[in-house]
Amino acid sequence: MKITKMLLPALVAAAPFFYSCQQSTDVVDSGTYQGTIQEVEPDKDEIYVKTDDGKVLELYFTENTTLTHNGETVPFDHLKEGGKVEVDVEKTGQRLDPKAVRILE
Q1: For the segment 6-19, what is each residue's pLDDT rounded down to a tens digit?
Q2: Count of Cβ atoms closer than 10 Å to residue 96 Cβ
Q3: Residue 30 to residues 2, 42, 80, Cα–Cα distance (Å)
Q4: Residue 34 and residue 86 in contact, taking contact as beta carbons nearer than 8 Å
Q5: Quick check: 4 and 13 in contact, CB under 8 A?
Q6: How far apart are CA 9 and CA 65, in angstroms?
Q7: What is the number of alpha carbons within 13 Å of residue 83 lying toward its C-beta?
Q8: Are 51 and 33 in contact, with CB atoms under 8 Å apart?
């Protein structure tokens, strides 16, 4: 019983952390979308983009993903949260593969 009393406050305190780590994402059809970068995860080569129509896309870069700014190829570290992008994605099952990401601003 004492263990329960000790663990319960710890679990309650940790609950918001686990909730905040979960990001609800959407799967869209293959195509081109514009939006704002919500999150950049450099260690995973991953970005989350909120599209202009309110969907959140989870995009893992592959060796085939091109990243450009003003027509020039740029490295992944040019992506910043809050930046505007245009993405060409291909839907593969429930996964979205980014074919091209263009930094707009």
Answers
A1: 555 655 555 544 44
A2: 23
A3: 54, 24, 24
A4: yes
A5: no
A6: 45
A7: 19
A8: yes
Distance separating alpha carbons of residues 56 and 36, to the nearest angstrom:
9
Q: For residues 39 and 79, what is the distance between their CA atoms, to the nearest angstrom? A: 9
Phi-psi region of 41 (alpha: psi -120 to 50; beta: other; left: phi over 0): beta
Identify the H or E element spanning 100.
Answer: strand 95-103
Per the confidence metrics, is the pTM higher than 0.90? no
Q: How many residues does the chain have?
A: 105
Q: Which string of DSSP letters, residue by residue, matches 14-78?
A: HHHHHHHH--------SEEEEEEEEEEEGGGTEEEEEETTS-EEEEE--TT-EEEETTEE--GGG
First to last CA, the chain: 57
